[in-house]
């Protein structure tokens, strides 16, 4: 089976001389695409000094095109060892090294590979000792991983292991899109500490670039970067930050390009995380939230746009801290569309005891709101500020805080809106997304503006091809 049998045997003899503890065997290996091959592999320990001396167990699979192709390398931890995910090791124990990426015969050899492996492990130890309780849970997981690497699958075992894994990694967030906003979201969510794991799904072509590469280099704990939709499986929240970079000529073409992009994303995300909350940050957020709702077939409560959450938080801050306004800022909201058509509104109608006092209070509140809006208009929305807002929303969802946020939600039935459009409205957020919409104060002018926004959004959506 091996195309270069003599070269392979010669190299393995050299390995055996240097590391006589290694044992050799033939087993079936299953590749990521499901294909299988009988491959030569060897297992043993390599000596690593990390303060103390450790023997790190590894397993190397030799491809049939060896030595012109690099081996596939795994850690082989015992039941009392846990895997330290880092720059060179993933959660399944697969080993990634520059030596493997730059493999070139005859310069590259298995002996050279093992030497680099030892050097990298001495910088960052890949295993740690488990407590007895953790070791018991790890035992079955390692058994399943061993079956994967040996080409055997047991779906019943997989289901149980996945269940245990999900219990331990309870709050998982996936961020789709590795642009500036996607990376800002990852950093903000990680800093907030709400998630046990954050997956950055990089859908760009080619190798990792820019910020994604930096995330890989500095290896934030509990952050995984992947190009595979399966990495998003069982996410509690999926944040969509992607925008098409096509050569569209008109505004409608730009949006249609985003719709086409979402047609390839939403079904895959929905397949791997059927109970997730979709949190849409792509532009225009109202339309793309509507598109996500239609493509996912999720209930309206679990499809949310980031909407005016950032503007509302700023608005309330300006009222309280900059203008020192004598109004309850917690009842002040920015609603409607993102951009120039956003509208200030209120959720507390108990202004005063009588009509005259109520009118005076309303006029005073309107004046201070107009001043706050002037200040707000001068604030741009940078990626990091939107990322902080998204981290705030995910924190409310994952921790079931039942906090009120102004987010894009299905507005049909509110303010006499009869079309299926998404607008920012004050909503109570929890584990399953929108729990309840908070009633706005009756204001004919606000209702008129919301209805106008709804009409223009509906007209735009009717021109899109879903």
Structure write-up:
This protein is of the alpha/beta class and 466 residues long. It folds into 2 domains: 5-129, Roll (Ubiquitin Conjugating Enzyme); 171-465, Rossmann fold, CATH 3.40.50.720. The chain is 41% helix and 22% strand. The strands form 5 sheets. The chain has a 6-stranded parallel β-sheet with strand order 9-8-7-10-11-12, with helices on both faces. It is elongated and about 85 Å long. 36% of the residues are buried. One of its GO terms (molecular function) is L-lactate dehydrogenase (NAD+) activity. One of its GO terms (biological process) is lactate metabolic process.
Characterize this entry briefly.
This protein is an alpha/beta fold and 466 residues long.
Key descriptive features of the protein:
elongated; alpha/beta; 41% helix; four-stranded antiparallel sheet; six-stranded parallel sheet; Rossmann fold; UEVLD enzyme; Ubiquitin Conjugating Enzyme; 13 helices; 2 domains; Lactate_DH/Glyco_Ohase_4_C; 17 strands; L-lactate dehydrogenase (NAD+) activity; 466 residues
């Amino acid at each position: 089976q091996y195309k270069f049998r003599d070269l392979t045997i010669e190299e393995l003899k050299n390995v055996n001389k240097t590391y006589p503890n290694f044992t050799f065997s033939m087993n079936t290996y299953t590749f990521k695409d499901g294909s299988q091959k009988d491959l030569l592999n060897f297992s043993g320990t390599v000596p690593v000094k990390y303060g103390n001396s450790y023997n790190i167990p590894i397993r190397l699979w030799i491809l049939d095109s060896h030595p012109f192709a690099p081996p596939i390398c795994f850690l082989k931890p015992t039941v009392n060892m846990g895997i330290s995910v880092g720059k060179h090791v993933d959660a399944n124990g697969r080993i990634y090294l520059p030596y493997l990426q730059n493999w070139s015969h005859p310069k590259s050899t298995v002996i050279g590979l093992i030497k680099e492996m030892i050097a990298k492990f001495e910088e960052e130890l890949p295993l740690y000792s488990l407590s007895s309780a953790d070791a018991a849970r790890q035992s079955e997981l390692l058994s399943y991983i061993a079956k994967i690497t040996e080409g055997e699958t047991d779906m019943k075992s997989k289901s149980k292991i996945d269940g245990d894994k999900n219990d331990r990694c309870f709050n998982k967030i996936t961020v789709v899109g590795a642009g500036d906003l996607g990376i800002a979201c990852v950093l903000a969510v990680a800093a907030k500490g709400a998630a046990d794991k954050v997956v950055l799904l990089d859908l760009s072509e080619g190798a990792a670039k820019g910020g994604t590469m930096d995330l890989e280099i500095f290896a934030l704990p509990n952050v995984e970067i992947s190009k595979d939709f399966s990495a998003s499986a069982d996410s509690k929240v999926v944040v969509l930050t992607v925008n098409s970079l096509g050569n569209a000529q008109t505004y409608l073409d730009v949006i249609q390009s985003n719709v086409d992009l979402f047609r390839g994303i939403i079904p895959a995300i929905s397949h791997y995380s059927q109970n997730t909350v979709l949190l849409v940050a792509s532009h225009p957020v109202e339309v793309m939230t509507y598109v996500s709702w239609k493509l996912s077939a999720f209930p309206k409560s679990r499809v949310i746009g980031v909407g005016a959450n950032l503007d509302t938080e700023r608005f309330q801050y300006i009222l309280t801290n900059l203008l020192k306004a004598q109004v309850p800022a917690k009842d002040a909201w920015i609603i409607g569309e993102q951009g120039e058509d956003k509208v200030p509104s209120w959720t507390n109608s108990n202004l005063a005891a009588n009509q005259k006092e109520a009118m005076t209070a309303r006029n005073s509140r309107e004046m201070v709101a107009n001043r706050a809006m002037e200040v707000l208009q001068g604030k741009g929305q940078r990626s990091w500020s939107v990322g902080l807002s998204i981290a705030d929303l995910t924190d409310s969802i994952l921790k079931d805080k039942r906090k009120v946020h102004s987010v894009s939600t299905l507005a049909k039935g509110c303010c006499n809106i009869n079309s299926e459009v998404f607008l920012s409205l004050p909503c109570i957020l929890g584990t399953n997304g929108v729990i309840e919409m908070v009633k706005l104060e009756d204001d004919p002018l606000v209702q008129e503006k919301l209805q106008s926004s709804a009409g223009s959004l509906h007209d735009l959506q009717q021109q899109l091809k879903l």
